[in-house]
Design brief:
There is one protein chain. The protein is an alpha/beta fold. It is built from 9 helices and 4 strands; from the N terminus they run αβαβαβαβααααα. It folds into 2 domains: about 130 residues, Rossmann fold (3-Layer(aba) Sandwich); about 70 residues, no CATH class. α2 links the parallel β1 and β2. α2 packs parallel to α8 and α6 crosses α8. The radius of gyration is 18 Å and the shape is globular. The N terminus is likely disordered.
Length: about 220
């Protein structure tokens, strides 16, 4: 079969995802594949949990080096000469948006890029569940009874202290199926399948930063 191949095929490269757990990694994978359809089949994951946002100095450097080494290792397993086109490292800040978020995101991402050259630190505020609250219709598509109360709609969800509690106690309630962290990939699949990602109801700076990073990665790392 002849014809021009995609950037990933030509350069024998993969995108690597690291995160706190499997649910977060799978959620990120779903979102990345929507933004960059050429990545389907070209994403691999690191299973080790991520603990970066509180690290500084030599400790941060050491932890990032461990992730970078593992990323390069899983890339090599895809075939001789395969390189890491880009690394996405996800972690929840477990705190609301503010100066700490900006400083932490910058500090960790700079270290990732210093060691690898092409990487993005996906630091969710306050956690990835805050992203889900931007898409009430997607949550209802997963479980019809799940409803986001009006007081949480159209807001900056990065300012919510405990989005997970909101989902567990107020969105899914006490009757029927209750939200758990294992529902995250299904929720984000509903976000994509319903096209809700194009018009979030409210705002979240970390969500916007993530999509800006994906667009930048597509231009600079995957199709350069």
């Amino acid at each position: 079969m002849s014809g021009r191949k995609s950037g990933l095929e030509r350069s024998r490269s993969v995108v690597v995802i690291a995160g706190e757990d499997r649910n977060d990694r799978e959620s990120l994978k779903i979102l990345l594949e929507e933004q960059q359809p050429g990545l389907r089949g070209g994403i691999v994951q690191i299973r080790d949990p991520v603990r970066l946002h509180k690290a500084t100095g030599a400790n941060l450097s050491k932890r990032v080096r461990t992730i970078v080494n593992k990323a390069q290792g899983v890339a090599e397993k895809q075939g001789e000469g395969t390189r890491v086109a880009c690394l996405y490292v996800h972690e929840d800040l477990d705190g609301v948006d503010g100066n700490v978020y900006l400083e932490t995101r910058q500090r960790v991402e700079q270290e990732i890029r210093r060691q690898l050259g092409c990487g993005h630190y996906v630091l969710a505020v306050a956690e990835m569940e805050a992203w889900m609250l931007l898409f009430p219709d997607a949550l209802s598509a997963v479980v019809k009874a799940w409803k986001v109360p009006a007081k949480y709609r159209g807001k900056d969800t990065g300012r919510f202290q405990d989005p997970k509690r909101i989902l567990m106690r107020e969105v899914s309630g006490t009757k029927g199926r209750r939200y758990t962290e294992s529902d995250a990939p299904e929720v984000f699949r509903a976000v994509i399948d319903g096209g809700y990602h194009r018009s979030p109801l409210g705002s979240n700076r970390s969500w916007s930063h993530f999509y800006q990073d994906v667009e930048l990665c597509g231009r600079q790392h995957l199709h350069g």
